[in-house]
């Protein structure tokens, strides 16, 4: 991964990320989150710091209506109660009818049957993006029993073919989180090496990224950027803010506060100067992945 240390300023995706961040702040995307009870407050604060407008509408009878007016939608399976599962299906229907982009975060699927079945039902509705750790992506592709709860036991490299297969099958952008994030639409693949380990020591660090992706997807729809560009831009922005926060933090508590501050303070110019991202080619032909 030494190439990830090279200056990336010539990559168009970095310039696109800069423009998308400006768009998010100029026209705050209304971001509809059906997310887990553990991270609701943190996720809302992250979206506010980014410049988006959060809405945690997970009530049956309201979710479909709200998804139709939202700019982007997140469905996170961290605490999939019966009410949340029903609201999630409603929201996906509302998003489909309105053309609203939506993100599926299949938290801790694999060994846990309720959320696993629900994740497979949701993915058939063709999410705009899927975000998870390597073990979750492998489980969603039917290639693994999952990780240890919300923790991955596999690397992003191990999930590369699974991510590509999911992207091709469902027309989704798939983002695999890890020390170096992998993002693909099945044709192209980006790797983002920004970030800091402290992000994994704050509850909601991964879940809130799904919400930021939904916000960037909403902004991308309005500005005609591709979903692949939006998800890569969201990841790049989020992980650079984490690096900046870690530089002044003394532990997870101070990091969490500093991270919110840096999400608000990180500028498009900071993305240009700090980005560590490359575009790679897949080793295997598409036919070998989907066969």
Offer a quick outline of the entry:
By secondary structure, the protein is an alpha/beta fold. It has one domain (2-281): 3-Layer(aba) Sandwich (UDP-N-acetylmuramoyl-L-alanine:D-glutamate ligase), CATH 3.40.1190. It is built from twelve helices and nine strands.
Which CATH architecture would you pick? Answer: 3-Layer(aba) Sandwich
Please trace the helix and strand order, writing H or E for each element. Answer: HEHEHEHEHEHHEEEHHHHEH
Structure classification:
alpha/beta
Task: State the fourth-level CATH superfamily.
Answer: Ribokinase
**How far is the first residue's CA from the last residue's CA?**
29 Å
Strand % is 5-15%
Strand tally: 9
Radius of gyration: 17 Å
**Please, what is the average pLDDT?**
92
Major sheet summary line: 9 strands, mixed
Which runs of at least 5 residues are low in confidence (pLDDT < 50)? none
| Helix segment tally | 12
Q: Top keywords for this entry?
A:
291 residues, alpha/beta, UDP-N-acetylmuramoyl-L-alanine:D-glutamate ligase, nine-stranded mixed β-sheet, 12 helices, 9 strands
Structural account:
- The protein is an alpha/beta fold and 291 residues long.
- It has one domain (2-281): 3-Layer(aba) Sandwich (UDP-N-acetylmuramoyl-L-alanine:D-glutamate ligase), CATH 3.40.1190.
- The protein has twelve helices and nine strands.
- The relative contact order is 0.17.
- It has a nine-stranded mixed beta sheet, with helices on both faces.
- The chain has helices at 12-26, 40-50, 63-69, 82-98, 113-123, 134-140, 160-170, 205-223, 227-248, 252-265, 268-274, 286-290; strands at 30-34, 53-55, 72-76, 102-105, 129-133, 173-177, 181-184, 189-192, 277-280.
- The two termini are 29 Å apart.
């Amino acid at each position: 991964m030494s190439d990830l240390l090279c200056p990336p300023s010539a990559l168009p995706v970095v310039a696109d990320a800069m423009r998308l961040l400006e768009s998010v702040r100029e026209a705050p995307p209304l971001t509809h989150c059906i997310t887990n009870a553990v991270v609701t407050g943190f996720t809302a604060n992250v979206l506010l710091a980014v410049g988006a407008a959060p809405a945690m509408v997970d009530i049956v009878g309201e979710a479909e209506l709200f998804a139709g007016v939202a700019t982007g939608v997140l469905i996170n399976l961290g605490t999939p109660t019966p009410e949340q599962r029903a609201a999630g299906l409603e929201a996906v229907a509302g998003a489909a009818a309105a053309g609203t982009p939506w993100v599926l975060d299949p938290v801790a699927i694999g060994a846990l049957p309720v959320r696993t079945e629900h994740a497979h039902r949701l993915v058939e509705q063709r999410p705009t993006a899927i975000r998870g750790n390597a073990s979750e992506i492998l489980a969603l592709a039917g290639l693994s029993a999952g990780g240890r709860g919300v923790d991955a036991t596999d690397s992003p490299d191990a999930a590369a073919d699974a991510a590509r297969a999911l992207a091709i099958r469902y027309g989704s952008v798939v983002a695999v989180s890890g020390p170096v994030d992998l993002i693909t639409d099945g044709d192209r693949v980006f790797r983002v090496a920004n970030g800091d380990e402290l992000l994994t020591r704050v509850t909601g660090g991964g879940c809130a990224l799904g919400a930021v992706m939904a916000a960037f997807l909403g902004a991308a729809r309005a500005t005609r950027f591709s979903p692949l560009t939006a998800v890569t831009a969201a990841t790049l922005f989020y992980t650079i803010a984490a690096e900046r926060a870690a530089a002044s933090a003394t532990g997870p508590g101070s990091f969490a506060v500093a991270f919110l501050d840096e999400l608000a303070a990180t500028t498009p110019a900071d993305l240009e100067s700090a980005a560590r991202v490359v575009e790679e080619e897949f080793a295997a032909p598409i036919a070998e992945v989907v066969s």
